[in-house]
Design goal:
single chain; about 200 residues; mainly beta; Elongation Factor Tu (Ef-tu), domain 3; OB fold (Dihydrolipoamide Acetyltransferase, E2P); 2 domains; 6-stranded antiparallel β-barrel; 1 helix; 14 strands; elongated; BSH_YhbJ; transmembrane; membrane; Beta-barrel_YknX
Amino acid sequence: MKQWLTTIIVIIVVIGVGAFGYQYVSDQQTYISTDNATVQADLSTLDATQSGVLANWKIKEGDILKQGDVVGKITDQTLPSKTNGTVVKTSVYARQNVLQGQTLAQIADLDQSYVLAYIDEDQISSVKLGQDVKVTIESLSDDFYDGKVMEIGLATGAFYNETETSSASSEQEVQRIPVKISVENLPVNRLTLGVHAEVKIER
């Protein structure tokens, strides 16, 4: 009886491992996959146009602005928003002394959010503009969102890293190329920039 149960368990395990292996190989043939990806959006800054005392500062993180909205003034000069978007960072306060050119707030266009994925250099030749992508965002459950490849980087992620130095090691580190992916129907009101995502680019 025990031998019979052991045999059944072994068969079930073998079938399970085989099914997993088949699915893995199938995915590798169908998709270029990575979980080295995050949700991003284009950022703009609201800068002080002159030095002076910041007055009537009216915005906080999470506020939605329209181009031209007056958000405060410095001395006698008003400060209008230069773009539409959501305030994602501000670290100044009313009656604070500010300097010309100082960044007062960062504004993101969340309606045009995208996923930035890093693809291994040995797979990047298979990535083309317009390819369909399936995207999963960790903070938004396990649902798939449809996307498309909209931009492929011209340099690796490490290219502009000033701390990157040549290594005497014979083992060459794999480089990764940034790929920008547009995503349909993202729930902007539940979106947090910088959260992790997983992408599957259809070959």
